[in-house]
Amino acid sequence: MVLNGKLDFKKALVGDGGRFFFLFSFGTLLCIFGMTRDSMPVILSGLWRIAAEPDYLVTDYIEVGGMGAAFVNSGLLVLLFTGILALMKVRVRGISIAAVFIVSGFALFGKNLLNVWFILGGVWLYAKVHGEPFFQYVYIAFFGTSLAPIVSQIMFGIDLPVVVRIALGAAAGLGAGFVLPPLAAALLPVHHGFNLYNMGFTSGMVGTITVSLFKSHGFVVERRMIWSTGNDTLLASLLVVLCVSLITVGFRLNGRSAAGLSPMWRQSGKLIADFVDMFDFPPTMMNMGLNGLIGIAYLLLARCDFNGPTIGGIFTIMGFSAMGKTPRTIVPVMLGTVLGGLTKTWSLTDPVVQLTALFSTTLAPIAGGFGWWAGVIAGYVHSSVVLYVGVLHSGFNLYNNGFAGGLVAAVLVPLLEAFRRRSQR
Fold first, then answer.
1. Distances (CA, A) of 360 to 76, 257, 304, 367
2. What is the distance between the alpha carbons of residues 241 and 83, in angstroms, rounded to a whole number?
3. CB 122 within 8 A of CB 176
4. What are the distances in angstroms from CA 288 to CA 222, 260, 358?
5. d(CA 218, CA 50)
6. In terms of C-beta density within 10 A (0-12 exposed, 13-18 middle, 19 or more buried), how is residue 3 classed?
7. Residue 143 near residue 99 (C-beta atoms within 8 A)
8. Which residues contact 297 (CB under 8 A, 6 or more apart)?
9. Cα(24)–Cα(96) distance, rounded to whole angstroms?
């Protein structure tokens, strides 16, 4: 980073230190935005309500604790999780950005300052028992916080003495985290790497088994929909500023050039396509901003809501734009969802369908690997599957689209490969 005795700021900004600066800045900005929305006493009270709320799908933290508390919760988790990576001296790659951004998104509707640590603790315990360093499983731990609602539901959603609830919730979180590392590796081949939210597929399996055990003992969870409205202009503006800033900064750091985007967009995005490793950080930043704008445009055109869950969807798209998603691959899948809205019995403005349109891009590699038409088919099929598989885990797996995407890819990919082999004869 030192050139002719002087600090090369450009190299510093695109290097590992600059990437950490980017993630820490992102978390700080979320906190600052949150603190401008409410007073500190209101935010603290909101953070407590968020932590003490059973938060299985769909629980919008803006509605539960207020906008200030929701964004502070998200920002603090970004800072803490980035701090873990920094303390472990992990090199920031595309998967690092994807992991932190998906945490930031779901920290607006499901992950909070209390429930995530038990999942991380379970993964750490697995590494300890097997005599392996935790950093080998750190991303499984980060993504695995999709099961955090299990902790909150047991601690705050069942009628037992407080001590018993806390002990059972902690044990459930630790147990869920403990089984994730071996299952994540074993289940990856099921969808052939064409489902980007592999931990969502894994967590769906764990959540299904866990909820089955709960229900067989008389514990039944009612479906819920806590969904805020009325903040569209403010939140859409915030997202646009963030995305345009990413494009602008990435463009300048890339020598005022779009070099790297074209070869990036030719990739299928199949796991694990780490764009930071493959094409460097500046083009990745531009890709993140562009994909984020596509998600924003969809919400505006479809007259959807801007709230905790939908912003979570945008942040997830942006995060995985560092590891698999490009405009070429996400648009066909989203069009498949739109086609579903025109031909099926639901509306594009239904809350669950709003989320499906954004999170269905977990299947973007199908469009990248088999063509845009395959992406449309994947999105169309996914839009039906995702509406019904949630009953299996009762919303305890936050990455429901990852669970559904794994099932869709497991069926579609072998069929698509068979037709491709036939056409090549």
1. 27, 31, 16, 12
2. 25
3. yes
4. 36, 13, 14
5. 26
6. exposed
7. yes
8. none
9. 12
- Beta pairing partners, 226: 59
25-60 burial, b at 16+ Cβ within 10 Å, e below that, comes to: ebbebbbebbbebbeeeebebbbeebbbbbbbbbbb
**Which pLDDT does position 2 carry in this prediction?**
41
Spatial CA neighbour of 50 closest among 97, 131, 115: 115
CB neighbours of residue 79 within 10 Å? 18
Say what the pLDDT of residue 15 is.
74
Q: Give the C-alpha distances (Å, rounded to integers) separating 49 from 54, 66, 70, 108.
A: 10, 9, 10, 13
Instruction: Report residue 377 as tokens.
Output: 């088919």
Closest CA to 94 of 192, 2, 23, 189: 23
SS3 317: helix
Tell me the domain boundaries of the chain.
2-211
| Rg from Cα positions in the chain | 21
Q: What is the pLDDT of residue 9?
A: 52
Q: What is the pLDDT of residue 342?
A: 87
Measured distance between the N- and C-terminal CA atoms of the chain, rounded to whole angstroms: 52
Measured distance CA(62)–CA(37) in Å, rounded: 11
Q: How many residues does the chain have?
A: 425
Residue 330 is encoded by which pair of tokens?
Answer: 């996400």
Tokens of 206: 């764990």
**ω into 58 cis (within 30 of 0):** yes
Q: Are 312 and 71 in contact (CB under 8 A)?
A: no
Task: Compute the CA torsion angle 328, 334, 335, 340 (nearest 10 deg).
Answer: 160
Residue 78's pLDDT is 98
The two three-digit tokens of residue 364, written as one number: 């973007």
- If one counts every other C-beta atom within 10 angstroms of the C-beta of residue 286, the result is 25
Q: How far apart are CA 368 and CA 106, in angstroms?
A: 26
- Averaged pLDDT, groups of 10, the chain, 425 residues long: 49 79 98 98 98 95 98 98 96 97 98 98 98 97 97 93 96 97 95 96 95 81 90 98 98 96 97 96 98 98 98 98 98 97 91 97 98 98 95 94 97 94 76
pTM: 0.96
Q: What angle do CA 313, 157, 142 make, to 5 degrees?
A: 40
Give the integer Cα–Cα distance in Å for 205 and 5.
55
